[in-house]
Amino acid sequence: MGEVAAFLRAHPPFDALSETELERLAAAAGPLAFSYGETIFAEGTGPQRAAWVVRRGGVELVDRGRVLDLLAPGELFGHPSMLAELPTGLEARAQGETTCYRLPADVTRPLLARPEGLRHVARTLLARPTPARAAADVAGAPERPVGGLLRAPPVVCAADAPMREAARCMTDAGQSCAVVLLPGGGLGIVTDGDLRRRVVAAGLPADAPVSAAMTAPAHTVGEDRLGGEALVDMLDRGVRHLPVLSAGGRLLGVVDDVDLLAAERSTPFHVRGAIARAGDADALALAARDLWPTVAALHEARVSPEQVGAIVSVVADALVRRLLDLAVAAAGPPPAPFAWLALGSLARREGAPSSDVDCAIAWDGDDDDAAVRAYVHGVARAVLDGLERCGLPADDNGATADRPLFARSLRAWGAALDSWFDDPTQDKALILVSLVGDGRPVWGVRHAAPLTARIGAARARPGLLRLLARFALSHRPPTGFLRDLVVEHSGERKGRLDLKHGGLIPIVDLARWAGLAAGAAESATPARLRAARAAGVLSDDDGRMLEEAFTLVSALRLEHQVQQTRAGERPDDHLRPADLTPLTRSYLKDAFRAVAAVQRRVGAELTYGVV
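Structure (tokenized):
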């Protein structure tokens, strides 16, 4: 092994490379020497075409003359600009006589897109000061409103402006998109990717109007939306730019995935991109292999469990949509329009490595049409088989779209919901209302709109809500008489604590009841709890306690399952309390006691007819 390869091998993320990959990278590495105070690259210069590694000496990262960090031999820099294909945010300057290796983008970028590379990039970005953090002590973009992440005024153009003019304005401003003002009001957007794909590749003339290449209407976010939530919006919609609006609807700027620290530390865009490009189920299974290593990388980069769960669900949605596209292409045009609904944790955007697939199908037509039933059954089986190969098994209890109970026409679904709402004491009615109440359409969305609206009407059924509240009290947190944690006493899970049934489900059930009572638009547990607090269904203290307990249990569950996946074990929800630190056990007991206290208060209100 040569000197360059041996040096790179000693430093992450290159220590994870195979010998062949390492030799290839070392062969491409160009050593460059810099004298004291010499600029390696200036702040705001064009995107870096390489990443850099300090070999000898040191490199200062400078923001407008102020030194933010000093990098030692083996440390990587310049990679955010290279990966994002955006101008540099800082100046890199030699501190003393310095030698650096220049690692070309075509060799380095694929290595940094892997989970181990992503993990290293995330850690360095989190540990390294940024101009924003130097100006103020902030927690990072995931918990910051996107309005505070805007770097520059937006580039704005009219829909009839020539493409040439829009491209020039974007280049002059150093931005990768322009917001388009639509003639009848509203906004469109055109990105540098649109110009490459829809203009250059398609052979459109440079004086063609921007409207020929734009996307309209543009997906937008309010200035108060948190950065982590905006990232999930981007992944869910398959976009990388979101115009940001003030409370009054005024355009403030555009946030992209690179503006968000969360995006830089938790970007599974490579997984989603591979899913979109997959031509068959084999390619999809190959693409999905990166999901759980990426989840582990996100967790180790300290991304919140709420955001990790949302990202898992977004990727699962992408797999479902692609499998449906492939299944419909193989089966031929459907005899009736239909929609696919996610149910359970994936519908609530609370996915985890142990998540299974709950789902349903609804079609527009006759419930007794044998041809339609045969068609949707075949499609459902193809999708579920494909998801199994991608590491997302079907629900063991049979809550899946290939079962008659979860495959109905829209009219039949409506009749079933009315029946369950009218008489929720029917066998399994509350379980089915709970499942379908979490439902979220992921394919054929507009066909599921009547069903979604019907579920929202549960708020007007006080009898149903009272029974859902009682149902939410049926799962108790695992606290014993002596306030110790209740564990399994026999069998293969002896001495283990069930984090899902004992920790999460009591909170999820309470949030479902309270969220439906409050008319919450979202089904995610934290969002339901916040809506219930705002509507007065839960007190502010109770809502906050439940949300904090949910976050704690979710974090412990994710940590446990990441460790299992790294060890090659099948992830489960059964944690050994003895493996926790005494402080963590104390926090967990406090969380369970808090949930139990909320349940007692809700139970008392039911007894006295307050709920």
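DSSP finds 24 helices and 18 strands in the chain. The CA atoms of residues 21 and 390 lie 27 Å apart.
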